Amino acid sequence: MAAPEGASAVKLVRERAAAAAAYLVVALGFYLLSLIVPPLMSGVRMPGLPDPVARLDWLLWAFLFLLAFVFTATAIYDVLRVLDPLFGVLSRRFGSAVGPGKRIARDLAYALLVVLTAIALAPFTEPLGQAAPFARVLIGAGALLIMTFLLYDAAKTIYAYVRERIEEAVAKLTG
Amino acid sequence: MDPAKYLLGYALVVLLAVSEAFPMSLSALIGAALLVAFGVSDGVVSFGEALSFVDLELLALLVGVMIVVEVVDRCGTFRYLALKVVRKALRKPALLLVATGLLSALTSLLLSDEAALLLIVAILLSLGKAGGLDPIPFAVSSAIMVNLGGTGTLVGSVPNMAIGIRAGFSFPEFASYLLPCEFALYGVTLALLYAYYRGKLRPSGRELELEEIEVSMAGVAKGAFLLSLMLSLLIAAGIADVPASAAALASAVVALALSGFDTLSVFQRLDWDTVFFTAAFTVIIGVLERVEALNGLALWLQEAAGGSLPLASIIVLLVSCVASLLLPNLIVALSFIPVIEDLPFANKRPLWSALVLGANFGGVGLPVSSFVIVMTIGALRREGYVIDPWSITRVGIPMTAAWIAFSAIYLLIRFGLV
């Protein structure tokens, strides 16, 4: 899954960012509905079924919550796809011409480096006084964000590699 | 204080080095910076103490030997001797296999493995181009012999220097423990390589010729003199109980003064990556020792050996060899040194010797084991020879197993452990 170049990358970023925002709004709408609508049905029960499936309010809540979850997941997926061109640039910077094994090892190494750097920096925020807790949150959150990106890239590389091998095997088996 | 983050710092260095994310030196410097920061904030070590963990004696020996070898290499001595020997063996492929194998091993006693291999492979490839000789069996054999070469002397490899210095071995003492094993293994290895490649060692039917090289005989003689001087000083230092690093530095000063080469250009050619890696990694190991993070490995080894020195030696040999199949051998050597120091045996010579052998022998087992293998494959491919990396493993794994079996018997007999 090579990152698109130039104009097509910008187009992809615009499209997916807009789609992610729209999905998030829809997800939020369903979540709000899951809080508002089910209480209106409370007390209505389906005959002969155990709890909680007998309760119509629970069934409605589960349905609306599931929809909210699916749209949130779709939005997250789109956000990650927006990041693909960024990963393309980063992987070129750190040497993209390496096999998947080495790329995964590098992603894990960088993730570990970020975590350990955050741990090492944290005690040195003490002289900041009252700003120290804020600085630590900033360091921790920054590290978590970068680590998430790196682990996503590792997962994407593993997925692409495994998928390619499986497709090859299937193509061989089916002649 | 939890040693987990310190061990994670160590794992990070290994991961960065193995994935080649950064050069070895930078990987180790990052790890050292992190571990020192942890140590300072936990109050277990000060910055000054951390700097004192750098083994200056080891660095002096390393840089001294590097300078002498660089000067001798520039004199053309190694290339001249290599071409002389190969020219004598041109007509008989079996003899050529033995000659190039021995040359590779003996050259890597002094040169780095990479430099020794480059020298031999360049000659083999020119033979291949000129006379239709298949260079693959010779190049693979050379890579294996280069890995074996240098096991038996204090200055034969960087892991040897690190282990020898911490064990307190002088140059003659180190050689007395390990050189007989290395020489015996030359015979075993060449016999096995000949048996494996016998079918591929047919004469090409064409006249093999080597290019004439223009060398100054005065330069070759000067290089030979400087090499002899360094070896003599190392032996004399051992007898007079003077540190080997002093002998190496003295030889380096004489080499620079007598050679007439530009000193700065000699310095530029030194392997600073290895020097900085060694310095930074000794700091990492120093901090790990301070927080007692390596005690677990020492305790496990102690329990597994059950107080038996022969068994402990065999375990060190096996574990360090398996580790060096997967990791750079310098990392293995530097990591095992404090473990052996922690073991409660009065006589640790068999253990140090086992570590030298194990750390050196893992280099040809897998394509990822050593840069030498990668270099051989790359050099052959650039010249259009197709070689499957696993074809080296098919030779390398049984060879490593044979070396380990032989070395285990050697250690038991040499140190009277049976």
Structural write-up:
- The complex is a heterodimer of chains A (175) and B (418).
- By secondary structure, chain A is an all-alpha fold.
- Chain A contains 4 helices and no strands.
- The longest helix of chain A is centred in the last third of the chain and has 42 residues, at 132-173.
- Chain B has a domain at 1-52 and 271-291.
- Helix content of chain B is 75%, strand content 0%.
- In chain B, helix 10 crosses helix 20 and helix 16 packs antiparallel against helix 17 (329-342).
- The chains are: A mainly alpha (175), B mainly alpha (418).
- The interface between A and B is medium-sized, with 18 and 17 residues.
Provide key terms for this protein.
heterodimer, A: 175 residues, mainly alpha, 2 domains, extended, B: 418 residues, 20 helices, 75% helix, 0% strand, globular
Indicate the topology.
The complex is a heterodimer of chains A (175) and B (418).
Chain A: H1 6-36, H2 56-93, H3 100-121, H4 132-173
Helix pairs in contact in A: 1-2, 3-4
Chain B: H1 4-18, H2 24-42, H3 47-52, H4 56-74, H5 77-88, H6 93-107, H7 113-131, H8 136-148, H9 158-167, H10 171-197, H11 217-239, H12 244-259, H13 263-268, H14 272-290, H15 295-305, H16 309-326, H17 329-342, H18 349-361, H19 371-382, H20 389-414
**Order of SSEs of chain B, N→C?**
HHHHHHHHHHHHHHHHHHHH
How many beta-strand segments of chain B?
Answer: 0
Low-confidence stretches of chain A: none
Q: List the secondary-structure elements of chain A in sequence, H or E.
A: HHHH
Which chain pair has the greatest contact? A-B, 18 and 17 residues
Please mark out the parts of chain B with pLDDT under 50 across 5 or more consecutive residues, or reply none: none
Q: What is the oligomeric state here? A: heterodimer
Derived from helix and strand composition plus strand pairing, the structural class of chain B reads: mainly alpha
Distance between the termini of chain A: 25 Å
N→C terminal distance of chain B: 43 Å
Biggest sheet features of chain B: none
Inertia-based shape of chain B: globular
Helix content of chain A: over 70%
Total number of beta strands of chain A:
0
The biggest sheet of chain A, with number of strands, parallel, antiparallel or mixed sense and barrel status, is:
none
Structural class of chain A: mainly alpha
Quote the beta fraction of chain A.
under 5%
Per DSSP, what share of the residues of chain B sits in E-state strands of 2 or more residues?
Answer: under 5%
Mean pLDDT of chain A: 84
